[in-house]
UniProtKB/TrEMBL annotation:
It comes from Paracoccus tibetensis. The chain crosses the membrane at residues 7-26, 59-82, 89-115, 121-144, 175-196, 216-240. Residues 55-237 form the ABC transmembrane type-1 domain. It is a multi-pass membrane protein. It is found in: Cell membrane. This is NitT/TauT family transport system permease protein. Its main location: membrane. Keywords: Cell membrane, Membrane, Transmembrane, Transmembrane helix, Transport. The keyword Transport applies. Pfam families: BPD_transp_1. GO terms for cellular component: plasma membrane. InterPro entries: MetI-like (IPR000515), MetI-like_sf (IPR035906). One of its GO terms (biological process) is transmembrane transport.
């Protein structure tokens, strides 16, 4: 990774924080109404052990839900990609489920599995993030040019060989594009459950604690911590994309 690709995002983040600080100062907002970036370091230090503990709980549940979304979303996408009948049957169900606001699903799951916070949180992270993966894999496979299949079949290639040599590489760019979206969606699901669940633990529960106590620096510190974790996971996906689908990058240097 070049120095420019590291410096440009860092400069953008610094400019954003400076603008945020200026906005709070210019409007004269008190801390009980709006926290400034300069208010966040004391909050991080005061609750440092809680941030470490809660951050880890949020992270592992999000990653667990995301891994399940990759496994089941990819499998479902393969089924829909190779079968028009399954695609026609499942697409309306997937679209309908995805159209339901997940904020309304979270309380239902929390009540169905009372006391099973880890399971609830992983489940909602999975449910909210598998849709883009399934759809992208399905589209990538269903739009495979038939000429490629015909040529390989004429050479005696099996269906497995066609999938491995043609279908899978063609689908990888769409898959990683969807995975970047799924990372942020998984964090949304995790934190919704952590806030709503009466047994919630994690950064979402820490945010809710700040809300109850009107501790705005703590609330904004949690939001920045969530953004940081999301950025880390996003760039992990970017690194994996460069390894497995770097050939598809056509952006100018």
């Amino acid at each position: 990774m070049s120095a420019r690709k590291i410096a440009v995002p860092l400069v953008a983040i610094v400019l954003f924080l400076l603008f945020w600080e200026f906005l709070v100062w210019f409007n004269g907002w008190p801390r009980y109404r709006m926290a400034a970036p300069s208010d966040l370091p004391p909050a991080y230090w005061r609750f440092r052990w809680l941030f470490i503990e809660m951050g880890w709980q949020t992270l592992w549940r999000t990653v667990a839900g995301l891994i399940l979304a990759v496994i089941f979303g990819t499998a479902l996408g393969v089924v829909m990609g190779f079968s028009r009948t399954m695609r026609d049957a499942l697409y309306p169900l997937l679209v309908g489920f995805n159209a339901v606001p997940k904020a309304t699903v979270v309380p239902i799951i929390a009540l169905m599995f009372v006391g099973q916070h880890d399971f609830n949180t992983v489940l909602i992270a999975f449910l909210i993030s598998f849709f883009p993966i399934a759809v992208s894999v399905s589209i990538g496979l269903s739009t495979l040019e038939p000429e490629y299949r015909d040529i390989l079949r004429s050479l005696g290639a099996s269906k497995l060989t066609i999938f491995w040599k043609i279908a899978l590489p063609k689908t990888l760019p769409e898959f990683f594009g969807a995975l970047k979206v799924a990372v942020t969606l998984a964090f949304i699901g995790t934190n919704l459950m952590e806030i709503v669940s009466p047994h919630g633990r994690g950064l979402g529960a820490l945010f809710d604690s700040g809300r109850i106590n009107s501790d705005y620096p703590l609330m904004f510190a949690v939001l920045i911590a969530l953004a940081f974790l999301g950025i880390v996971l996003y760039y992990i996906v970017v690194a994996l994309e460069r390894v497995f689908a770097g050939w598809a990058d056509r952006s100018p240097a």
